User: Fold this.
Amino acid sequence: MRSLDILRGFALLGMILVHVHQHLEEPATGLEDLISWIIWVGVEQKSWAVFAFLFGVGFAIQLRRMEAKQAPVTSLYVRRLLGLALFGVLAYALFGFRILLDYAFWGVPLLFIRRWSTRALLTAAVISMSAHSLVEIGAGTWEWLTLDRQEADAAAAARRGPDPIRTSLQAAEQQGSYPVLLEARIRAMRADYVSWSFLIPGANLALFILGYLALRRGVFDAPKRHTHLIVSAMLLGLMSWALWWLVLRDLSVGSVPRIAAQLQNGLGVVSEQWLAFTYVGGLVLLLAYRPVWEQRLAWIGLTGRMALTNYLLQIAILDLLSSGYGWDLRVRPALVPLVAALIFGTEVLVSNWWLSHHRLGPAEWLWRSFTYGKRQSLRLSPQVPSRPSHREGR
Assistant:
């Protein structure tokens, strides 16, 4: 589906912009600070949400294809997630980005709930959104009931205190030895994935479920038939974003910080992150009702066709630019969009060149070969010209 490739391309562009903003940007004031604010308010959480939502769609497409071919769904799907987990380990250890490993873990539940009704899946998505907040509220309530004020304040201060592993990682990122940084990242990865908090479902699983549902309902197969549903999702996303920024963000609620923080976060259900649905829906409707935009945005779709390869490429570039072992580069906020555009432009050129000779991106080829347990075809088959008809030969 070209629309999915284009959506993935836009998600990659948004993530490049956010990563440059987070890793390379110098503090600034005045007009330049407005650029940082716009990225924070309009792009930061939203680009990640779009990427996660589309991963859910991708998982759904794979499940649908496997079932249509009567392939062994469970074994192939588990191998696919295991392959993604291997990429995730490399992405975290080598470059310091953890999201692929999270995706691999939280993609597993889709295998077991894929036949649930729409209502049951929506309920599971809402529970996933709010699970972390509910756990925090439960813990905060227990502290409030069992600790006096001084002990509760001490517990809160301990939670806000520096994490030794994170402090060590930040120091390693600033020094010039890559082996030292690699060791610090492996320690941080081990700490992240043995933590009980990792086992609490969250936004990633919720977005996977919603992406799966969108494909199952035919939103991407026939968007015009689902215009009302798409517009409703867009409005809900916009209202959630506005409610969080205009009301919840500065809301004063209660005297127990651990509980108040989760109420301010809308229990995870009302979130500014859901503006991603507005972006996705708007682009899907644009491509459905104005098909000429598929051709105009085809260059962005090239990057989306090899989204995993391009994601790995962008985090490798960003790590080299930002870390102490590399260039240790910092730029003014006004240059952040320019640097992001240069990185994305490089990915467009690389994607165009690669896909003119190959069927799949290199990471996608490795992933598919691992999933099916055999080497997949990579190079494009030569086009054999068809024999002209008599009319064509005149």
